[in-house]
Structures are given as structure tokens and as C-alpha cells.
Amino acid sequence: MILSLKNKIVGFVFAGLFLCSNVDYAQVAYNPDLMIDDPIAAVLDSLHSLNMFENGYAKIIYPKGNKFNFPHDSVPKYDEAIYEQRLKKIDAASPFDLQYNTVVKGYIEMYTTRKRELVARMMALSQLYFPMFEEQLDKYNLPLELKYLAICESALNPVAKSRAGAMGLWQFMYPTGKMYGLRVSSYVDERCDPYKSTIAACEYFKYLYGLFGDWQMVLAAYNGGPGTVNKAIRRSGGKKTYWEIRPYLPKETQGYVPAFIAVNYVMSYTAEHNLYSAIPKKTFIQVDTVEIKKQLSFSQIAKVLDLTVEEIQYLNPVYKKGVIPVMQGEKSFLTLPTSKIGAFIANEEKIYDYLKLDSLHSKTVLAAQETTKIHTVKSGERLSTIASRYGCTVAELKQWNGITGNTVPTGKKLTIYIFSKKPTAPSNTTAPISGSGKTQYYIIKKGDTLYKIALQYKTTVDELKRLNGFGTKYSLMPGQKIKIKG
Questions:
Q1: Angle, to 10 degrees, between the axis of helix 298-305 and the axis of helix 338-346?
Q2: Which distant-in-sequence residues (6+ apart) come within 8 Å of 92 by Cβ?
Q3: How far apart are CA 421 and CA 368, in angstroms?
Q4: pTM metric for this prediction
Q5: 324's torsion region: left (phi>0), alpha (psi -120 to 50) or beta?
Q6: Is the dihedral of CA 262, 263, 264, 265 positive or negative?
Q7: Hey, which of 29, 124, 336, 355 has its CA 20 to 30 A from 434?
Q8: Burial of 129 (0-12, 13-18, 19+ CB in 10 A)
Q9: What digits encode the pLDDT tens for the residues 442-469?
């Protein structure tokens, strides 16, 4: 998890894999380095409870003839010599120092026993995210093993949020995310954009490696911040390796690298531990993106494409409020199953027509535009008064500007995101209806189709065809009068 100046109060994610309200503390007593009260346990629990993740994978299906002929309920155990031998094999092909010790052993045994179902779920999510991680890591000439860091950071939950306010797969704090070009506004949080946040993480990895020249130290700096690592170096008397400075690091950072080593082991030896992936409902090759030309809501897309809002949310975690805004000078994209891309393109105008229909119901159309303002704090101003002035919340002010306390010094410049909603009169999409009683008529205008008319008047194309005696072949001419009701 990334910090710019202050240490984060967050543990490593996989320790939380095996911590829950009824955890047997005696089971972890053998490892004094494990933190019982792991704040990331709640993030991992989201893989159980959030509807958007229930759309991400189905149940585990065990192969009929697994590699080692284990029964489905078997939980294999191995001697320390086996763990050490296997890690040496991984280490020989890795730029990381994947050494085995008792701390690493503790994490390996936790990952492969008490929270096996969560490991299976993350294995399913990895089939959506890992190919993209690997593509970007290779592009930046970075070790591919860094993909496992997202497991340690977020359990592959793209909307994971730490107690310190870090967000997304790679857990960027607001200031660091902004430094690497990740936009945060009322409607969009690009720290939760899998693609853009992965690019930002790669750039940050390159920066940290330029500082320390050692991948183990990069891991520690990513978790605790480069300033924390530099302090540990000084306190250790100038030592330059992770294991030498480890006693001088915060406790959560002391556990972070061993957890990363254990993740490398577990993901390399899943079959040996009878661990199998839950079945992902969508993998990397089964999704694609389209550019959005007009503002859309998830509900509009769901209606036309026969998807659930939760499915769309799962594939588009960057949008915070179920709305895809289209801003001037900014491109907006929608991720969909590849099987729905063709349907979206073919029905794009129809989907936008739902927005017109919704606007008729509400009598207004929202012409949305986001602007950024810099506010200089004046003497006596409070966060609450500033938030009230700009129509945002105190929490948003803190998040946008990396503020952790409840006060702000005079003269500090604050970034304010203003998402204006300007009601305008709806366009003249509905022509007058003539007639009285049960029978009502509509005068055809240039460009009209039965589908558009059906949308406008809350009816169906088939009903319009029935009322007007239209067969499979029909034509609409400007000035023609057709029945709408009767």
C-alpha cells in the first residue's frame, strides 16, 4: 500500500485471509510476527459479501482426476524441508530473494489451511486481472512476480479501501495516485480503474527501484513508504538489505515481505496443496471495452443488454455512483463481456434513448460538467465551512487533499472537484398527440422510427404495428398519422 509521507496503519492482506471473528488465536501463537487484529480482514470479507463479487466467480469445481489424487476435503501438510526446497526452486528463477524462514512458514500454512475458500476465490479473480498485470509489467521491464503484490495489497478487490484511505487493487493513497495521474472526482476514482492503476503502479515500482536498487527494499518501500525505509537504513547503521533493516521497520512492514514470499509459494504450488480455483464468470479474454459518447447509467445499460447492474459494476469499478460521466476533454470507457460488445454497438442509440426517456420522466436533463478549483484556506475557515461552500463533504475534502486530521492550516491550497448538475429543459423529443377519448394519434416526423415512438409513449413496437395494421414490411413518411392508443 502506498504512502507519500506518513506510514499507513494497514497490515498485509494475506494475514487477514485467515483471521475472522471466531479465529482460534492459539492456532497462530507459534508465530509472534502475525498480527491478530489485521485491518485488511474486512477487505477480504468483502469477497464473501459484496454482490459485485458474487458475480465474479462461481463455486469451486474439483477436477475428477487431480494431479495427486487427493480427496476433495484433503488439506495436505509438508515438512519444512519440502517448503524450503520448493522455495529454492522458485528463487532460482526470480530476481527477488525468496528465502525460507519460520515467518514465511507461518504464512504458507495459513494460506493453505484455514482460509482455503478465499484463496480459491482470489485464484478466480486472478484470471481476470493477472494477464493485464503481466502485460504492463513486461512493457515496463519489471519482474512479473510483482503481480502477486496486488494480492498482498487488496486480495484482488478493485474497490478495496484501507483505514488510511488507500484505494483499489494497488492501494494508492490520494496524493500518490494524483502524482501518477490517477483522477479522483465525485463520480470517478481512477485508483479503482484496474488498467490505469496498474500503469501507475508500474511507474511507481520503477521509481522505487531507482531509489533502492533492490527488489526486496522496493516491496518494503511500497508498503511503508520510501521515507520509512530510509529511516530504518539509518537506524540499522547503514545496512542495505531488507532482512538487515527488518527489525527497524514497522510491524506491518516486517510482515509484508514474508507474506509476499508466501504468496509466490502458494500460487506456484496450488495443486500440491489441493487448492483449486473457483470458476471465474469472466476471464481477461472474455471482456472488452467501448468508448461512451454520452452520459449513461448502469441501469440503462443493464436494461438493454440483459445484464445485472452488479455485473456492470464488477467490470467497471472506476465509476463510483453507477453513472458513466462524459466530460469535456476526457474519454470515458465501458467494460463489458465480449459477448455483449456487438449488442452494445448495434443498440448504442437505443441505449442513449433510455436517457431521453428517463429525462422525460424527471422533466429535466442533467448537463454534467466537472471543474477543478484551488481554494486557499483563510484564517478561521474550517473544513466543514469549505465543504459547505463547494457542495461536497468533509470526507471528500480530506480524500482529495490527503488530509488526515480535522484541521487545516491557514494558507494551505486545497484542490476542489466541482461536479455541476445544471437542469435544462428536455429536448422536444415527444411530438404532440392528437385525438380524444381512447384513440390517439401521432404525426410522423423526419427520422422517426417505431422504436423511438414506442419509447416515448411507453408502449411497444408490436402494439404500434397491431394498432396500425403494419406487417413485416412497412414505411413511415413525414406527415403520416398513426395510432398511438385506441
A1: 90
A2: none
A3: 5
A4: 0.68
A5: beta
A6: positive
A7: 355
A8: buried
A9: 888 876 777 678 777 777 777 888 888 8
